Amino acid sequence: MPKCPYCSKAFGRISSLQSHTAFCAIQHQGTYAKRNSMEDLDVPPIRDMYIVLQKLIMDNEKLKKKIVQLEKIASKEKKKICLIDWLNARKKPPSDFVEWVKNITVTQNDFDRILNSNIVNLIMDIIKNNIDDDNVPLCSFDQKLKTIFIYTKKEWRIVEKDEFYRFIDNIIRKLTGQLNNWIQRNNLEFQNNEEKFHTYTKKIYSIDSEEASRRIHLRLYNHIKYNLRNIFEYEFSF
């Protein structure tokens, strides 16, 4: 099998060897020129220079195509921004989290469900009924797992554990208020049916606020979250 006299690479076809040898000879002379005078070099035949030029043009075209592909990738490369900065710039609810929590409405109909509903489901439904998608001071994202942001004091930040606990406890206290209203309206009935009275009071006062808060946090995160990558070409930092 014929081999290149410069690099000893073997070729199965003479035509391939000739094309390679023309290019390899010039490369070899370039290496030689680094160590010796240019006057010591032999000028290659025009045919060999044509082969080399042809190969360089083809390689250059391949590189151009790769550059175009890389530029397309680079144009889509995601800019890093902070989620909180993004929220502060684009989402300004009319009321902050503390005010919104105070104004959450718990109705008698909500209370009427207490015996036949899971307390987490009931509280989640109350929250959903008080959420205005455009103005709610709550937000979460796929890009920040299990994290809820709140709008307070004219800026967004991550809600703290004790804040979220107080938020859920506030709803439970409003359910308790509806219990007291219901007792006043049905006082005579309770006097004749203490078992019913104890059933309602036991249900409302046996709620584990901390456990409810933990479970609702995840449920609420999943309910209000959305994926900003569906809208923007950003990679988010936190």
Automatic annotation (TrEMBL):
Keywords: Coiled coil
Coiled coil: 53-80
Residue ranges constituting the C2H2-type domain according to the UniProt record: 2-33
Protein name per Swiss-Prot or TrEMBL: C2H2-type domain-containing protein
Classification lineage: unclassified sequences, metagenomes, organismal metagenomes
